[in-house]
Amino acid sequence: MEVTTLECDVCGEQKSDKEEWFVAISTVDMIRFCPASEWANDRWVVRKPEDICGQDCCHRRLSQWLDEANRKRSANRGQEGR
Ligand SMILES: [Zn+2]
Questions:
Q1: How far is the CA of 80 from the centre of ligand 1 (A)?
Q2: What range defines the domain where residue 31 resides?
Q3: What is the domain count for the chain?
Q4: Cα 28 to ligand 1 centre (Å)
Q5: I want to staple 36 with a disulfide (CB 3.0 to 4.6 A). Which of 9, 21, 50, 52 is the partner?
Q6: How remote is the CA of residue 6 from the centroid of ligand 1, in Å?
Q7: Is the pTM of this model over 0.85?
Q8: 79 alpha carbon to ligand 1 midpoint, in Å?
């Protein structure tokens, strides 16, 4: 029997079969969400996807990512302005 315990990488909730989960892949310049049921593991072998328990956590993860991206952008701008 296959029992895998997945935890949401945003809120830490454990996976139950009832909810639709998502996976997120993020790099420096993009973030991507995909329903876990449609996830093909071999599509992005470079990185381990983050497990996300639902739409709310997708939004939270996206906000985190945007905050990071903004921070990096303003840091870069600071260097160029010299
Ligand atoms: Zn969550």
A1: 38
A2: 22-80
A3: 1
A4: 22
A5: 21
A6: 11
A7: no
A8: 36
